[in-house]
């Protein structure tokens, strides 16, 4: 089990962060998706969200490297090609977000605009608010060419189904 955090400004791109310890500000995986936060929220309203990330296995430098080292991914959100995701290092902004959310073990919410920057005046625009969802995810390693993260609903009832798949496959690259 790992801690997964999905976050982003309302009008900005979504970030997916995987941590083994919620108190750490150094993620084991950090990806910036091409999907806007508003679009992701809209997709999640249906209750089922599948994000598949495929890398090009025909590039010699990516054919054998660990999946978490792949720098660029083709993204499919619920079966539709959505653009390209990039692996990122946690910069000051991401570390600040993770530090702010240390006390959140599971949940979703909004962090006001300017929070933690010393600039919070209560007048920030809604597009600057940071939306987040943090939960436990089951991490499954299928092979050297596939990993997945599946949201674990805390109440064990019907709820959001969300999965992120990392795949080294040439099958969807020509779509």
TrEMBL record:
InterPro entries: MIZ1-like_pln (IPR006460). GO terms for biological process: hydrotropism. PANTHER family: PROTEIN MIZU-KUSSEI 1, PTHR31276. This is Protein MIZU-KUSSEI. It comes from Arachis hypogaea (Peanut).
């Amino acid at each position: 089990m790992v801690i997964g955090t999905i976050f982003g400004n309302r009008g900005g791109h979504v970030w997916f962060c995987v941590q083994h310890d919620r108190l750490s500000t150094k993620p084991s995986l950090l990806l910036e998706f091409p999907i806007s936060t508003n679009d992701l929220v809209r997709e999640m309203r249906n209750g089922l969200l599948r994000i598949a990330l495929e890398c090009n296995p025909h590039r010699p430098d990516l054919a054998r490297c660990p999946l978490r080292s792949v720098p660029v991914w083709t993204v499919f959100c619920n079966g539709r090609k959505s653009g390209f995701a990039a692996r990122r290092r946690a910069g000051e902004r991401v570390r600040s977000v993770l530090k702010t959310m240390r006390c959140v073990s599971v949940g979703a919410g909004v962090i006001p605009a300017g929070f933690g920057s010393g600039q919070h005046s209560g007048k920030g625009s809604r597009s600057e608010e940071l939306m987040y969802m943090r939960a436990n995810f089951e991490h499954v390693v299928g092979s050297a060419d596939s990993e997945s993260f599946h949201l674990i609903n805390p109440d064990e009832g019907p709820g959001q189904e969300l999965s992120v798949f990392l795949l080294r496959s040439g099958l969807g690259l020509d779509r």
